[in-house]
Amino acid sequence: MAFDEAFDVLVIGGGHAGCEAASASARLGASTALVTLNLDLIGQMSCNPAVGGIAKGHLVREIDALGGIMARVIDRTGIQFRLLNRSRGPAVQSPRAQADRALYRLEMRTTLENTPNLSLRQGMVMDLLIANKRVRGVVMQDGRSISASAIVIAAGTFLNGLIHTGRQTYTAGRAGEPASIELAAALKRLGFPVGRLKTGTPPRLDGRTINWDAFQSQQADERPVAFSFSTDKIEQPQIDCYIGYTTADVHEAIRKNLHESPLYSGQIKGVGPRYCPSIEDKVVKFADKDRHQLFLEPEGHDTNEVYLNGFSTSLPPGLQQELVRMIPGLGAANIIRPGYAIEYDYVDPRELGPDLQVRSIAGLFHAGQINGTTGYEEAACQGLLAGINAALMVQGRPHFGLRRDESYIGVLVDDLITQGVDEPYRIFTSRAEYRLALRHDNADERLSKYGREIGLVGDGEWERFNQRRDRIARIKGSLETTRIRKSDSAYAALSEKTALNGIDSLTLADLAKRPGISSSIILQLIPLESRASASLEEVEFALADNLYSGYIKSQESVIHRLHAHDTLPIPTGLDFRTLNGLSHEMAERLQRAKPVTFGAARRIPGLTPAALATLLVNVSTAS
Amino acid sequence: MDTIVAVSTPPGRSAIAVVRLSGPQSLAILRVLVQEEQFAPEPNRVTLKKLLAESSPDLIDEALVTYFQSPHSFTGEDMVEISCHGSPVILRQLIDLIQCQEARLAEPGEFTLRACRNGKMNLSQAEAIRDLINAQTQAAAAQAKRQLRGELSEALQPSKQELIRVIVTLESAVEFVEDDLPAVQVKEMSKVLGRVTSHLARLAETYQAGRLLREGLRVTIVGRPNVGKSSLFNKLVRTERAIVTDIAGTTRDSLTEATSLQGIPVSLTDTAGFREAGDKIEAIGIERTRRAMADADLLIVVVDGSCSLQDEDVEVLKEAREHSFIIAISKGDLPRVLTLDGQLNGTEVVHVSAMTGEGVPDLTAAILKPFGSDSGSVDLLITDSRHYDLLTRARSNLERASRSMAQSAGEEIVLADLHNALKLLGAITGETTSEDILSEIFATFCIGK
């Protein structure tokens, strides 16, 4: 067949997964095309105009350490930066930034347009061309055909999307945009196990009709923490957000109108996320709460549009308007875009390998909501991984994967491909066994080496990383070697801050572990030659390593004890049904999940200890 | 790879028992046992060594030790084999000591697994071994069904639920900082953790009794000559097994008889009376008495109630103090001269008459006190050393979590220990996944903007 155009890698979808995939693939030297329905909506934030948050912020910093683009784009377009959990331990702190929705989109498009080897194409993919279990290309709605050796599907909620508001339903990928019906049908024809998920979004308000005084303001951090390790300064002017609450009257009105909700009438079949419930769900499931928190988030510098975070709903638009006006401070507020729920198709991610390539079709990669995840950050990191692996595959290089003990990305991918999903999957810090070791501020130390090896981390960033590492190493050295003695002038002042109990001398590392000693106190005590080039943030880094080192070691020993064989590889293509001693049911469970390591097998729900022992002996012997 | 240890011979009493270590720390641990930092045994050669209690000159046993150097061993790793006397007391001491070093108890079949992994076995050998592991797993499963594991798991459930509740509260505080959640009640949580910790501690403490239950309780009767040891022995074993006369020193050799007291297996030993040896035979008899004392879980010191306390009685009591013991005041059918009522420094004292049987139920109760229903709220006994190990480790994790909490450490640090504890309990009750915890969070709190 004659193709109109030919590329190495073709990415379907211009959302957060698609952008990372296309950028990574092109920068690795593969000729890459990004096909999207509307070039003006590349990098569009369909829901909340914000990036990061607990665990999600970790993902963004990992993306940056590997050489992805999301962190840089949000750093240039974020209008309210806050480090969440600032008062808590460093391992659970995470950056979050509210974006100027329009600026983010433009910045992302500019970034892609300036990427060599990357071509943008507007259009809708109708079908995948596959021969001999290998991708060949795609056919578009307008009749064009494009050949590619690797395809990344990152179609988001567009796959068979169906929007609900009240009893009204219509097919759409997002409000005002068409759904990808034919591509969804093509995936079903390929025999993939396809399921339905649901997500929702709240109404957007006209900021001029809000009584802002009725809300409590929430300010940006004075010292914004950037997402990218190569950002020196956040330049965007910072804005305030506002916090308010629903009332019991609002809840009562919702309860009275539940029959209007497609969620409760049985009209919606897809499963929604429990951690992002609609206001209907909150009112029903937590009936004893007399108020629910709301955030008013301005969508940008040059717009009056305001995002009503916490009020996701699929009730009829007229009713939404009535309910909004019952909220204190929103008595005169006008909705400019109603909230809605959307159902969409996803493909069981257990079809994928750790490189996010579909196991049964060479060159086909899935990233983002097609894998059952939710969230821009979750999508972006999968896009990055899929884009990297698509390019590596085309270039005949070995594939790239990450482990659970070194990254949140590794946790996410491993969860997806071994456990599958039964609701939209979101990352949480509690999903990571090695949480104390996986801090947002050490993502570069964990992952930059991989980004460099693959070829996404350039000379400048690499140099920057090495210098930072050296500075931190010097600080760590000073923490261990600098001693505070009773005879020192600082001693008396310090003993007012914390109980030193007349100790003759102690190292800065030990001093830092005492209550009442802040990182800025430590910074002042570090000898000048190490302090000169160090920032407070780098001192905090060194102190965090110091704080957790003992715990990480003992935690590792427990995990190691219980999971000693987790890294043992299981040969690819192993037919579990041929193993002696496995019951039919156990063999089927394994066959379905196709674990690639013993650890992955151990996490498959429902496997008996006997089945695991049998598997262990078999794979131990085989290796 | 960590270092594992196990008793490779069947449980119970035997002439010789073999303890095996496998893993990189094997030789280092052996050096600790023999208290020789430079001990460098020639591989595959048997050496006779004294095994000593940690940092003390106390002899545990004299044993044959063999070092196998990686890869020339059964598992392919560094290994040490210790052949010692097959006394449960010795083995218990030895295993406890080894576990205090960098070693843990092996899982069933783990030595074989390591052998497989290191290519020390071919496929067909492994097939046979796999059946063995299956059999072991099935035996374990059967045992679980029968009672113990199931019961233990059930007994742990309330504690586990409380622990999960604390984890859920702390995780929510960390994970959903932007949600409108109730403030964490540190005081309340420390209380809950304290409760959980002491429950685990109580369960772990039953291990001693549980182990005795499985291996049988070894009880030795001692005392100066002619206080009525043999009469009491006969009464307890319910036969005229020992010769009883009124001639002091009739019993010249130790005599052991298996019996059961209220269904609990007891191995009862009658011994030659303690006194200055009159002849060579008696001297050997008394030496054997000492050995029987050393090997006993419990001593019954018999003193004659019909006369006052003799110097020889005091001597016996002095020797008994090294062990756990109870005092039986015998000849209750004769006019009582000696009174040692109630408890003597915490030692149980029972008046008994072998002639009339009076006081025998009291004596039985005193012997079985560690199993008795009056020992507290825990009826369940831990018999599996692996369970004991897991409970003890879970407990120490919880203790550390409580300490961190008291020092206002971050939630993530407290949680690290709590998750460890939960994982260890999970090895008994079944794993709690992070998904389970998240489900619990979403069911408890209204999360989500």
Fill in the keyword field for this structure.
heterodimer, A: 623 residues, alpha+beta, FAD/NAD(P)-binding domain, Elongation Factor Tu (Ef-tu), domain 3, Arc Repressor Mutant, subunit A, 4 domains, 7-stranded mixed β-sheet, 6-stranded antiparallel β-sheet, 20 helices, 22 strands, 36% helix, B: 449 residues, alpha/beta, Gyrase A, domain 2, Four Helix Bundle (Hemerythrin (Met), subunit A), Rossmann fold, 3 domains, 6-stranded mixed β-sheet, 13 helices, 46% helix, globular
How does the SSE layout of this entry go?
The complex is a heterodimer of chains A (623) and B (449).
Chain A: E1 5-12, H1 16-27, E2 32-36, E3 50-52, H2 56-66, H3 70-77, E4 78-84, E5 94-99, H4 101-113, E6 118-122, E7 125-131, E8 134-140, E9 145-153, E10 162-165, E11 168-171, H5 181-189, E12 194-201, E13 204-206, E14 216-218, E15 241-245, H6 248-256, H7 279-285, E16 293-298, E17 305-309, H8 317-325, E18 335-337, E19 340-347, E20 364-366, H9 376-394, H10 408-419, H11 443-454, H12 459-481, E21 483-485, H13 489-497, E22 505-507, H14 508-512, H15 519-525, H16 528-531, H17 536-562, H18 584-593, H19 598-602, H20 609-622
Parallel strand pairs in A: 1-2, 1-9, 2-6, 9-20
Antiparallel strand pairs in A: 3-5, 4-5, 7-8, 8-9, 10-11, 10-19, 12-19, 13-17, 13-18, 14-15, 15-16, 16-17, 21-22
Chain B: E1 3-7, E2 14-22, H1 26-34, E3 46-52, E4 59-68, E5 79-86, H2 88-100, E6 103-105, H3 110-117, H4 123-146, H5 148-175, H6 186-215, E7 217-222, H7 229-237, E8 255-261, E9 264-270, H8 280-294, E10 298-304, H9 311-320, E11 325-330, E12 349-351, H10 360-367, H11 385-406, H12 411-429, H13 434-444
Word description of this protein:
The complex is a heterodimer of chains A (623) and B (449). Chain A folds into 4 domains: 5-153 and 347-454, FAD/NAD(P)-binding domain; 204-339, Elongation Factor Tu (Ef-tu), domain 3 (Beta Barrel), CATH 2.40.30.260; 459-551, Arc Repressor Mutant, subunit A (Orthogonal Bundle); 576-622, DNA polymerase, domain 1, CATH 1.10.150. Chain A has 20 helices and 22 strands. In chain A, strands 1, 2, 6, 7, 8, 9 and 20 form a 7-stranded mixed β-sheet that branches. Chain A has a 6-stranded antiparallel β-sheet with strand order 14-15-16-17-13-18, with helices on one face. In chain A, helix 6 crosses helix 7 and helix 15 packs across helix 17 (536-562). The model of chain A has no long low-confidence stretch (mean pLDDT 92). With 449 residues, chain B is an alpha/beta fold. Chain B has 3 domains: 3-106, Probable tRNA modification gtpase trme, domain 1 (Gyrase A, domain 2); 147-210 and 380-444, Four Helix Bundle (Hemerythrin (Met), subunit A) (Up-down Bundle), CATH 1.20.120.430; 215-369, Rossmann fold (3-Layer(aba) Sandwich), CATH 3.40.50.300. Chain B is built from 13 helices and 12 strands. Chain B has helices at 26-34, 88-100, 110-117, 123-146, 148-175, 186-215, 229-237, 280-294, 311-320, 360-367, 385-406, 411-429, 434-444, and strands at residues 3-7, 14-22, 46-52, 59-68, 79-86, 103-105, 217-222, 255-261, 264-270, 298-304, 325-330, 349-351. Chain B is globular, with a radius of gyration of 27 Å. Residues 133-149 and 373-378 of chain B have low confidence and may be disordered. Classes of the chains: A alpha+beta (623), B alpha/beta (449). At the A-B interface, helix 17 and helix 20 of A face helix 3, helix 4, helix 5, helix 12 and helix 13 of B.
